Amino acid sequence: MAFALWDERKEQLILSRDRIGEKPLHYAKTGGTFLFASEIKSILAYGLPRHANLDVLEIYLTLGYVPAPFSFVKDVHKLPPGHYAIVRNGRIRLQRYWDMPELDEANMLTSREEVFEQFQSLFYDSIRIRMRSDVSYGAFLSGGLDSSSIVAVMSKISGHPVETFTSGFNEKDFDERSLAQDVADRFETNHHEHTVTPDSFEENISRILYHFDEPFGDSSAIPTGYVSMYARESVKMVLTGDGRDETLSGYNAYQSEKFASQYQRLPCALRAIPTRLSNSAARLLGGRRMTRLARILRTADLALNERLLAKAAWAEIGLVRRLLRPLAARVIPVDDYLKDFMDGCSYKDNFYRLMYYHFKLTLPDDMLTKIDRMSMAYSLEARVPFLDYRLVEFMARVHKDVKMQGYERKSVLRRTVGRSLPRSILRAPKRGFVVPLREWFKDKRRTAALMELSSKGPLEASEGVIDEILTRNASGRADYGNFIWMLFLLGTWLKV
Prior knowledge:
Elements: E1 3-7, E2 12-16, E3 26-30, E4 33-37, H1 40-46, H2 57-63, E5 76-78, E6 83-88, E7 91-96, H3 112-130, E8 137-140, H4 145-157, E9 163-169, H5 177-186, E10 190-196, H6 201-212, H7 221-232, E11 237-239, H8 244-247, H9 252-263, H10 268-285, H11 288-300, H12 304-312, H13 317-323, H14 334-342, H15 350-376, E12 381-383, H16 389-396, H17 400-403, H18 411-414, H19 423-427, H20 437-440, H21 444-454, H22 463-475, H23 481-495
Parallel strand pairs: 8-9, 8-11, 9-10, 11-12
Antiparallel strand pairs: 1-2, 2-6, 3-4, 3-5, 6-7
């Protein structure tokens, strides 16, 4: 949690944010007044002008969010996770009190049996502690391995059926409700599900901007908001699977990183052949698997920071820079920002450096920001068992070959709690809580609305680039759905 404390003896204010970033804390200084709040709107209510911080535009349009210590409101700052601030005599001093553990990379934990036993013990205890509540509670159930595992443990601990909540889509490729139902049936939960449709598009834009106070481009905030709203009708607190991919090194990016470390050992001449073949096959045959293979091979030769940006960006960096060409002199280059950020990581192996990147950047500024704002929008408390600091610190020291046996994601969870899950969950591919925006933005009324939003403001000189993005998305030549969503949020925020 985040808190503020007035030290009367030293006449100083102490602000503190939790270790990993589950809760936000913003601050600003105007004249001789120091302001702080969990929401930017509270600071603006004091009278601070709502001026756009255009310096972070390239960062936002690449990552989809504005990371701490920046915000999209000029002069408003975010206190980074694991930090406290001391405010005294008009001066602000930031101090880190928690960080990822130091690693002896030559002596990581390699005993599978010991790791499995310790993980299971910590995971059960984390869930047990977070089930302590004086109010009704349940769990978000996406149909993935992680939330299913939480429900499995909750069902063993609880003396009554667990309330579970799922959001889905009419588009089959994005819908996991059948998988969630398999878990609900296995553990006899009291299951609730809801369908998300694009009918309330404008309402979604308004809701996101109101609750985040700045453009926030992770579109999975939409279904997170819906499932929070419907869960609140039944319970006041939920357990969620957030933080699982960071703690377990479970993102597809870890498979790619493991592959890249092996691929880079091949002679350059040998590496060029499969890259050319996969690029040609992707162009001719298409398909998600072939396209992903081509992308993995293309990025395997890059330096880690370049690879991180290539994977994180919702549109090509070159395209983003064409869009921002009139502002090039003032925006912070996203690669400069990432270099400064990653320079703070002491880990040597790129697999563990990737873990640092996820824990210190994407988790607090994207994933946890999303679940906090959208759950609190409906007065629903969200608790995250995978982010118990004991579990985080333990799993950080586990060798990558134990976390990922071969190229199997989340081996530790699969071979412990996962054994009690339906086989359909263990076999299902990773999807994530994604929204079919590519299809939604083939609607010409919405694309016309975006062009209108972009006709004034900092992107008005880039209408030709925006038209190109919309055309390529509508034709199916590229999937810019989430990037278009980010442009909508940006244009609407600037217009208000």
